[in-house]
Design goal:
Elements lengths: L11 E4 L2 E11 L7 E8 L5 E7 L5 E2 L2 E11 L3 E6 L5 E5 H4 L11 E7 L2 E6 L3 E9 L13 E6 L4 E5 L7 E5 L5 E4 L1
Antiparallel strand pairs: 1-2, 1-5, 2-3, 3-4, 6-7, 6-9, 7-8, 9-10, 11-12, 11-14, 12-13, 14-15
């Protein structure tokens, strides 16, 4: 059983029979009050993020979430298919379960599958991915006079992202998978 002091960043625990990942936690002790641990947690099945405070007597069971290396193969009308790196089994995950992560998957991408109670519940992407720009507007002299120093670019996955004016069609860019924002030119 996990107590309040065991709930640190990166720990996965069970609450209401669902796995939660602690994204951020902070121990707080105020004068004349009992200590609490404030935390931002993410439901690994639904993706919902909550902010909670845990008391000293709160107890939770540790969730048995396995991480398996996999390769992204392809997408069809409603799901993305991955191949387990060890067993070569193929697993499909619905787009609604992937959310915005589908915008950063290219064929052959190495990912980590999250498995809870023998069911694949999600995908862990690398922090940054390199994607090719397939379409963007040309730079026109004087565009920055209005204060606009970014422009829209369409990536090879179909996602659109704001990039600096010097990025051209055909360039490779690094994108942060957590925020969906441009990081740098590759």
């Amino acid at each position: 059983m996990l107590g309040m002091n065991d709930l640190r960043t990166g720990v996965v625990f069970k609450m209401n029979d669902q796995p939660y990942l602690i994204m951020w936690s902070n121990f707080l002790r105020m004068a004349q009050r009992k200590p609490v641990r404030q935390a931002k947690i993410k439901n690994l099945i639904t993706g919902k993020i909550l902010e909670l405070s845990f008391k000293l007597d709160d107890r939770f069971e540790e969730a048995d979430v396995q991480r398996r290396k996999a390769t992204y193969l392809y997408r069809d009308d409603s799901a993305a298919t991955f191949m387990d790196a060890e067993t070569y089994d193929q697993t499909s995950i619905d787009f609604k379960d992937l959310g915005s992560q589908i915008n950063f998957l290219v064929d052959g991408a190495e990912v980590t599958l999250l498995v809870f109670e023998n069911k694949t519940i999600g995908v862990d992407l690398p922090k940054k991915v390199e994607l090719k720009v397939t379409e963007t507007a040309d730079v026109v002299r004087g565009d920055t006079a209005q204060g606009s120093v970014t422009k829209e670019a369409t990536l090879e996955t179909g996602a659109t992202v704001k990039v600096p004016m010097f990025i051209k069609t055909g360039d490779k860019v690094r994108i942060n998978t957590e925020t969906g924002e441009y990081v740098e030119r590759a």
